[in-house]
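Write out structure tokens for Sensor domain CHASE-containing protein.
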Amino acid sequence: MIRKKITNLRDRIEDGLRSLLGQISPDGRIVVILVMLFLFSAASIYITVSSIYNIGKKSGREQMQIEHIERLELEQQQKADSINQLNRFEYE
């Protein structure tokens, strides 16, 4: 039942896109593709350049601080028989 609903939804979306894109002429499709290509490439270049530029900034160093690992404090248990450690029954 869920699979039928997903298939039905996918078919409706596909039909809607085909009807919208079918109205554009072949030259218009090329223009849309080129505009999208330039927008995505400009966004990619901007993100790359801004990331490289912010690597050496002072604010980036403040956020990344290296801390040493501290020693873990564990409880020290008294050494006794293994049976006594496992069988601690307190009924009162």
